């Protein structure tokens, strides 16, 4: 069983949910489909959805909500 | 009292602009900055700099306590809020005054009244200014929003009650759109302004965005004519002009007078902007909002009137009466401002922070470039994508467009994508030359003319 990394496409601030008062897109341990959003990146006041980009299960987030991220930084891992 | 020292509670190009105005007046400057902004230009130019917190705006530039504590520690006389961030936050203005310092802007009460777009609509109506049909007040729930939309019809604008500058505004084409955008708009408003309150306004489908610059000292109120800001993308102004050259003289007079009436209604102090939608076919104008701060596009007004708006707001805040009477305000020639953003027009205007490897600024008569860029500067991803404003003035609009094309060709910013190519295309466009545009022109034009020119995709995938 291999781990697949999901990287941030942009530098900015990472958000787990679309707004502070709704549940996160994905909880730790969830399965994801390639087109599923796993979070938002706020870059220069613009919010961009981060798609999982891969099908997988048991997602583990490596970045906290509202944490600054660099482009290419690993945000989460899933099991193939 | 005459202000002898100022704390600049902002960043980017406007912080640089404020520091330059303050230096020209012989005023000491203290610049606050986040941990991500330690090497920004305003920090280098200021007499003193204070780190007020981590990169996230709400932990630094939106943190009232941190900014006020910095002002007290630095022993300044006054605080200039710039635009965005805390500039239209009444609690901030009150906190600055409670600390015994001068807030360079209107009183907290006036900001509260006008900054709450819902209350401002009522003030405008009282001053005899026509307003756009929409919700009577703030909307607590999506159910209430549905009710208003049922009466006004679609398309409808979802606007942040605490917003301004086009932030936190979305257009809903139908009910499904409204349901989808409402929570996102609220979240964006909360992130940007610390207030998630929303209201609705019917979309006036074919209109120009025209706005009037006002100045007040609490007793005297004047206008410095109008600006034309119809070229917008996603409600963000991209290109601004002064004057609005196709506006009939009698409409201009009525428009400018109505802005002064509004300023008088609230005993306005400082620089402000009254924004309107103008329907060319009916010659009707509708009040949208008042921005109780210096505006991004203030330089075009400065270029045609010769008035230094930032210096004037500092003087007035210090207790001086307006240095200019209405009869002294004369407009001469034409000015255009192009907002240069760190965005890639070929990739749906995707914002792209990065490091400036080369910077060449055009020089010459009638050319001004307000910026925070310098070679070697790394733009952080946490803030606005505006990196500079190219402002060009000439005796006629035609000559201004000619000079603008020349200036844009001479402006070189390497290391990041910028919107210079967009402005070059606009400056050479026949519709733009005729002034034949409204607030929805640019997005259509981007999808057709500009896409054909560049092979660009209009939207981010």
TrEMBL record, chain A:
Gene3D superfamilies: 2.40.50.100. Pfam families: Biotin_lipoyl (PF00364). Residues 5-77 form the Lipoyl-binding domain. Pathway: Lipid metabolism; fatty acid biosynthesis. Signal peptide: none annotated. Keywords: Biotin, Fatty acid biosynthesis, Fatty acid metabolism, Lipid biosynthesis, Lipid metabolism, Plasmid. This protein is a component of the acetyl coenzyme A carboxylase complex; first, biotin carboxylase catalyzes the carboxylation of the carrier protein and then the transcarboxylase transfers the carboxyl group to form malonyl-CoA. This is Biotin carboxyl carrier protein of acetyl-CoA carboxylase. It comes from Shinella sedimenti.
């Amino acid at each position: 069983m291999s781990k697949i990394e999901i990287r941030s496409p942009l530098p900015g601030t990472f958000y787990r949910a679309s707004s502070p008062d709704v549940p996160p897109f994905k909880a730790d341990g969830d399965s994801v489909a390639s087109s599923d959003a796993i979070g938002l990146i706020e870059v220069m006041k613009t919010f961009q959805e981060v798609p999982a980009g891969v099908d997988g299960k048991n997602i583990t987030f490596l970045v906290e909500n509202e944490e600054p991220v660099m482009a290419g930084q690993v945000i989460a891992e899933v099991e193939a | 009292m005459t202000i002898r020292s100022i704390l600049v509670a902002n960043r980017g190009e406007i912080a640089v602009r404020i520091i330059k105005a303050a230096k020209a007046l012989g005023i000491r400057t203290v610049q606050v900055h986040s941990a991500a902004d330690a090497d920004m230009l305003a920090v280098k130019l200021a007499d003193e700099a204070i780190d007020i917190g981590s990169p996230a705006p709400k932990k630094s530039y939106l943190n009232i306590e941190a900014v006020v504590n910095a002002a007290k520690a630095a022993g300044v006389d006054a605080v200039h809020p710039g635009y965005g961030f805390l500039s239209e936050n009444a609690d901030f203005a009150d906190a600055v005054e409670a600390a015994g310092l001068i807030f360079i802007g209107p009183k907290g009460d006036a900001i509260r009244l006008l900054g709450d777009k819902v209350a401002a609509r009522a003030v405008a109506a009282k001053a005899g200014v026509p307003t756009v049909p929409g919700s009577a007040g703030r909307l607590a729930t999506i159910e209430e929003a549905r009710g208003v939309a049922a009466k006004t019809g679609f398309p409808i604008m979802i606007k942040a009650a605490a917003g301004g500058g086009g932030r936190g505004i979305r257009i809903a084409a139908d009910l499904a759109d409204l349901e989808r955008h409402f929570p996102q708009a609220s979240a964006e408003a909360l992130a940007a302004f610390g207030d998630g309150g929303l209201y609705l306004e019917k979309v006036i489908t074919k209109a120009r965005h025209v706005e009037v610059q006002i100045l007040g000292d609490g007793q005297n109120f004047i206008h410095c004519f109008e600006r034309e800001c119809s070229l917008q993308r996603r409600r963000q102004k991209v290109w601004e002009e002064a004057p609005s050259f196709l506006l009939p003289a009698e409409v201009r007079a009525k428009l400018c007078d109505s802005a002064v009436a509004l300023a008088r209604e609230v005993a306005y102090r400082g620089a402000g902007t009254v924004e309107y939608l103008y329907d060319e076919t009916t010659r009707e104008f509708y009040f949208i909002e008042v921005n109780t701060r210096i505006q991004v596009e203030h330089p075009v007004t400065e270029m045609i009137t010769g008035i230094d708006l930032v210096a004037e707001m500092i003087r007035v805040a210090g207790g001086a009466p307006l240095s200019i009477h209405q009869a002294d305000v004369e407009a001469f020639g034409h000015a255009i401002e192009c907002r240069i953003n760190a965005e890639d027009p070929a990739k749906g205007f995707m914002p792209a922070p990065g490091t400036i490897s080369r910077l060449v600024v055009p020089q010459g008569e009638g050319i001004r470039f307000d910026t925070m860029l310098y070679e070697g500067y790394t733009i952080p991803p946490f803030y606005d994508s505006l990196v500079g404003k190219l402002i060009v003035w000439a005796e006629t609009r035609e000559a201004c467009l000619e000079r603008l094309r020349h200036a844009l060709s001479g402006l070189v910013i390497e290391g990041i994508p910028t919107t210079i190519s967009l402005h070059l295309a606009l400056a050479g466009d026949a519709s733009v030359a005729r002034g034949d545009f409204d607030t929805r022109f640019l997005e259509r034009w981007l999808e057709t003319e500009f896409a054909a020119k560049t092979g660009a995709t209009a939207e981010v995938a």
